[in-house]
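Z., the sequence and structure:
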Amino acid sequence: MSKRIYIIGTAGSGKSTAVHAFQVWMNTQGFDAITVNLDPGAENLVYNPDVDIQDWYTLKEAMEDTALGPNAAQIYCADMLALNAKEVGDTIRGFETDYVFIDTPGQMELFTFRESSKVIVEEFGREDAMMAFLVDPILARTPSGFVSSIMLSATTQFRFSIPLATVLSKVDLLPEKDLEKILEWSRSTDALNTSLEEESGSPIILASSEFFKALENVGAFRPLLPISSLNLQGFEDLYNEIQMALEAGEDLATD
């Protein structure tokens, strides 16, 4: 059975470009991968999806049919996923492929916090499924922004209860000093708390040390995997992380 990787993250975190880049990287390694777009409002995608939810319905059509505004129509479309889950799943299963990269809606709450998305995960299959949460490097440059990103990643993991890799995307945008700082925060709660103290001096934030330790104990706080969709940096490491989670490190066999 093909492995399904859901690409999740806040708006602007680079989900669509990461989907495209990972497919390109897979092809260079001799593996086959298809792409799935679950965003009914996506325009000018950088890849041509093999399966596109817009073949079933679009945001524009939803607005016209329901007279809803764009925000309400986005929620309407997110819930429509459940009604089309089986048909979309059957279409995906019609492909003989190693990997399925699933591009989730631009606003992550439309996928992460809607019950319809759990229907999608169940229909597509939990076995051999994993999520990659993309951390926006611009947000993560400050200690508080980094913490916000980690908490969103942890929430996503708790919501779906399938393996999750936390990825720092678009690292080509970061100065080397900032990249090293963010990666250090992801490796050391002590370093993170020191930076939080320097940023705000708030005793409430400092008291969160035990909270981070708790996240660490359940696997929600872990070293970030830095990637760049521009030059394909880090995709081998992300691939290895997926293999460790889904195959206990066993590599895919190529023809």
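The first helix runs from residue 15 to 28. The two ends are 16 Å apart (CA to CA).

Let me know what you think.
H.
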